[in-house]
Amino acid sequence: AVGVSATATAQDYPTRPITMVVPFAAGGPTDTVARLVAQSMSQSLGQQIVVENVGGAGGTLGAARVAKADPDGYTLLLHHIGQATSATLYRKLPYDPANDFAPVGLVTDVPMTIVAKKDFPAKDLKELVEYVKKNADKVTLANAGVGAASHLCGMLFMQAIGTQLTTVPYKGTGPAMNDLVGGQVDLMCDQTTNTTGQIKGGAIKAYAVTTPTKVPSLPDLPTTKDAGLPAVQVAVWHGLYAPKGTPAPVVDKLSKALQTALKDETVKARFGELGTEPVAQERATPKVLGDFVKAEIDRWKPVITAAGVYAD
Ligand code: MLT
Fold it and tell me: Probe ligand 1: pick from 170, 173, 185, max atoms within 8 Å of CB?
């Protein structure tokens, strides 16, 4: 109706389906987290949440799409640590990760695993590093583009072993996993939300987890620290965002629905099977996520600058 006040609209929100943009291809770890959260949030919001995969440029195409969307609460972004690393990696980013979004809340921190095609000739991480250093010109490393978590972990890995490998970018580590299982690519560093099933099914080989402690659902995997690569440590945090300017009552409703989803037994059980868990309730808030993005931009800036990695 013409002239309906913004507050009234915000109070009625949501009155139609919501789009949740995942800035990577379907079937990957970001998509997995998004669909679990969206399914639960749609129940408490009473409107369908449609996940839309907008891949490319390490997640920055999808993030740009949401940064420019109407700030009405009907277009959301579920993104991960790439929201912070892209601020340094991309020299001409068409949006400001720290200021062009209305943060809703943190979602989950996901461990990463160093994995290889199942016939890769190394029985442990030490042997893998030796083989990779000797065969650097032949070994290929998959990732989801500059800005992806798999790219960041791959960068830490190559820095730690002092060896540059041929990297193969995909629109997400869902498609990358297909090639790893098929043996078309050799290595990848990817999140347990994507690798757990393939590891347990014997379709790929796993060498280590990138977290300070072992992952209960993958008890045989040593930490990179214990396996000799202490510098390769990264956990992939995920956040939910709306465009800057989304009315506060709408953001508040979304944050409450996110917190409810993170207490949902189905979400918690599935996250547990995939090696992760929901963040504590007090972290699923606009202020915590907003502050955290800024802190993570500052944290990764020197690491990325030292690695001399960037994209135009
Ligand atoms: C990443 O590497 O950033 C993610 O694994 C990409 C994805 O979710 O497909």
Answer: 173
